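Structure representation.

___
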Amino acid sequence: MRNKLKIFVEESQNYDSVPTKQILKAIDTSDRSPIIDTIASLQESTKAIISRLCKSVDIKTSK
């Protein structure tokens, strides 16, 4: 998972994420596609991915 998350971080340097994020939110794919802000720290991105995975299989997480 760590290597896959590094790809997210590296890709965030290749494009301006703000307009992309606005477009994705406008078409509302939240029921099937998570929007992960790769500008955030690796830890925040990881939490967002894990949270999304847990919701998709209805698993409760501890905080």
